[in-house]
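Case study: Peptidoglycan-binding protein.
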Amino acid sequence: MTEHPSPCRGLLAALLVLSAASPALAGGTTLACYQQVHQPAVYRTVHEQVVVRPGGVVHETIPARYGEVVERVLIEPERLVARHIPAVVKTVHQTVMVRPQSIGWEWRRVHGVKTLCKVVLPAEYATEARTVVVRPAQTVHERVPARYAHRTRTVIVEPARIVAREVPPVIKTVARQVEIRPASSGWVQVSGGARCN
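Here is what the predicted structure looks like once written out:
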């Protein structure tokens, strides 16, 4: 702070100014001598923290993750199919009676004389072929199993999401000069009246 001179010093300063300004007062008897002194301002370096970048919350998007899975898929379902089986036949031969045994008459010559005789006529047989069914025709239903295949499919393992991340502020220490005491000026007595000449 600026030093304020005492009332005497103020008066002395006024007289000095008047004496300098008025030649009529020069050459008087000296009572005391004063010199003006100047004191420079006093500074000090202080360190303080300033925010270079404020903190906050940053939202980051994390993309989804994908993977592949192999799955079994149905191509054709199980079904019943009707199938016709034809009859099985074969040809067999058998002897059949064409004419049964009977009594009949026939002419014979007995001792040279034409004679009508009663005779037994034997049965007559013949072989004939005929077709017989060994197994009749039929319709059967067959079960056809289902058919499957494998395919690869892309699936989401983890969906995309947004994550909030806190970013701390960036703080830096800076130095600056602060004034502790301002510059000042004042008057000091250098000697008594006897030593001012």
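For the exam, be able to explain this: Residues 1-9, 14-25 have pLDDT under 50 and may be disordered.
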